[in-house]
Amino acid sequence: MSNHKNPKPTPFSHPDPNDEIRRLNKIIDALMNRAERSMSSQGSDFSLFQTALMLEEKVTNRTRALEEALRDNERINRDLFRTTVEMQTEIKERQRAQVALTESESRYRSVTEAALDAIITIDEGNRISFVNPTVEKIFGYSRQSMLGQPITLIIPNQAPASTSGSLADYLSSQIGRLNREHLELTGRHRDGYDIPLELSFGEFETGGLRYFTAIARDITERKHAEALREGQYHILELIASDTPTEETLEALLRFIDHQHSDGRATIVLLADDGRTIERTLAPTFPDQYGNALCGLKTGPNAGSCGTAMYFAKPVVVSDVQESPLWAPYRNLGETFGFRACWSTPIFSAEGEVLGSLAIYHPDVHTPSAEEQKLVASAVHLAGIAIQRSRTEARIRHMAHHDVLTGLPNRTLLEDRIEQALAVARREDCQVAVMLIDLDRFKTVNDSLGHHIGDQLLRLVAERLQACIRRSDTMARLGGDEFVICMPALHDPEGPSRLAEKIISELSRYFTVDDLELHIGASIGIGFHPTDGDTPNDLLRAADAAMYAAKDRGRGNFQFFTQELNRQAHDRLMLITQLRQAIERQEFVLYYQPLVDIHEGRIVGAEALLRWQHPERGLVAPDQFIPILEETGLMVTVGEWVIDAACRQNAIWQADGVPPISLAVNLSAVQFYRSDILKTVQSALQRHQLDPQWLTLEFTEAVLFEETEPVIRTMHRMKQIGVGLALDDFGTGYSSLSYLQRFPVNRLKIDRSFLRDAEEHDGSADIINSIIRLSQSLGLISVAEGVETSTQLALVETLGCNEVQGYLFSKPIPADEFTRLLKSGLPSTLPLMCNH
Ligand SMILES: Nc1nc2c(ncn2[C@@H]2O[C@@H]3COP(=O)(O)O[C@H]4[C@@H](O)[C@H](n5cnc6c(=O)[nH]c(N)nc65)O[C@@H]4COP(=O)(O)O[C@H]3[C@H]2O)c(=O)[nH]1
């Protein structure tokens, strides 16, 4: 406020000077008017004039004085205004400062009141002078009871000795240090437990006294989280470093126990059946406890763990003496000193229950949120550890077992044979290795699909397993081959008895997907020491013997012989040579005429495969076709046959000879393992041959399983105009249903009937029936293997339509057949038309 020591007249009490001047001027004007008027009427009135002049001077002076006063007044007004404004500003500032102070105080109050951290002020003497409400919450004392008390009440001395142990000194020593805000100290709750604290603080002075204000944060949760993380890392390290699972799980249990001094943690593991407790890990319990749990089943009322695993949900039993879940096991609680038990299932990543983690408490207890968090994390880690060990075990198992049947695979088998050989050498006994190959399995697998084939193999494995002893090892080598190793053999008859049992067991039908499947087994047996001294030798011997069994008509067993050894070797050679034959195009077709009995002329021919072997000369198909079929090479060779036959027939037609239908043989594998329809269509197209000049011959093996795809393919063949002939009719199942369901045009009567017909009436009867059957179904009957006039006469009499056999011609090369086609059959043949 400005200081005016000499007060001036206040402008507000003074009359307006302008009014006064205006009033004086009016008087002067009036006087002057009177003087002028008297001068003009009576002469001059001097005194009046003088009075006016004097008055005017006075007025002038007065006016000056007034003007000066006016200026003064204005200045005073300005000063006053400024002073007033200054005063008002000062007042407003004071008011604002007051408001700000009040606001700041209330803000401070509300901040300290609401702060989640404890705010504590101590004086230099370490006495508490201020606490916010959070201090009450954290330390359990009332505010009032803390004020004036030494700080050691809530933060016991823990400062280094260099700072005399007092908190104030300690804090003072930390002032100016870079990391002082990260000061960690331990507080003490009224109930006596420790509270980890993180402190940040500042100092201030008032009234010449020094104070410290500390903001203390309760970091119990963070410390727990850190400990938990530390524990997790440790367990994960154990898992990663391939520590045995049980050791890892026990470390996990120790960690949980450490986190909860009152609790005792255990883990139970389920067996593969997912229902039985297989193993208990309870390091803080006596062994009897773990033993008592092993073998128990999960269920809706099976204690905490059994129930938790049954429902795949955590089960909290705060008092085992009261819970109905513990009714059957109450004595366990008393014997092993626990009252509460809560159990949490351990899951695999796929959600499968692997086991359960339980925490036992000596008193009635319900888990806190903190405990639940710990268990959730522990259960997760346990899941990883258990699953990892199971995965490893599974990988180990897979490396040594067949995935489909679960039987040992070749690796494990060889290992077992090796062990058996070692024992046999020591104890001077024998080892038998038996190779079982399923008969007709390939047909089932190819025709009904792998899904059925796989199921069948599993059933076979089960039946075989039931035949062997525990000391025997049974393995699957892949495909339909099973091997049994019989170690420490003292009874030389043992392997034959087992082989007979297996053959009889596998000849019983199997039911897969409501289908009745008939297979069989051919078995080869090799012995140590006679047939080999290594797993490989013995397997090779058994393999050779198995092929011998197959050659003898399947469904039997053979022992290995040196002769078989040679044959097995030859077989391997043959496979190699056949592969080369395909590459080197060593196959050729021979043609055998098909004669119409009534017209006496060649109406068709059968294309028959030959192998022009560079050393062995011409090889007949029965020497190599079975191997082509077994190895799958028949698909490639069969495609070549179809193509070559179509090409040759097109050449004949182009040559102008009367067109004939050329028949090619199809193997079952060609039906199942290739797109036969496409092969046929493209061959016809490639050689511009009308489909009516091609006939496909197949045996009943193709029809073994009447699958829809095979029936569909045949109908498509018929639709495009290709002829279909059923070969070797009468030798297989010869079911009438085949003939109804498959659209064949020709029935070829197997030549064995004709061969036997002269000696057995039965065969002639069969030929007769087949011809009748063909007639009734509107099919062309063909008699195969006609070698003599008598045979020809027989089939002719019985009404057969067509004949094929050495009587007319053996299978001959293409050029010879061309000549035969052109010349026609010799008229000397006893054909009806020649009579
Ligand atoms: N004893 C005697 N035999 C006669 C007479 N007339 C014909 N044969 C023989 O009977 C067989 C007829 O063929 P298949 O029954 O289809 O039986 C054929 C057929 O199943 C198969 N085969 C031949 N070529 C092929 C082919 O290209 N593919 C397929 N998948 N199989 C073929 O090989 C089998 C044997 O063929 P091949 O040795 O050529 O034997 C031929 C033929 O030489 C006769 O009067 N007396």
TrEMBL record:
Cofactor or coenzyme needed: Mg(2+)
Keywords: c-di-GMP
Xref: InterPro entries: Biofilm_reg_signaling, Diguanyl_cyclase/Pdiesterase, EAL_dom, EAL_sf, GAF, GAF-like_dom_sf, GGDEF_dom, Nucleotide_cyclase
MF terms in GO: cyclic-guanylate-specific phosphodiesterase activity
Entry annotated with the keyword Disulfide bond: no
Signal sequence range: none
Protein name (database record): cyclic-guanylate-specific phosphodiesterase
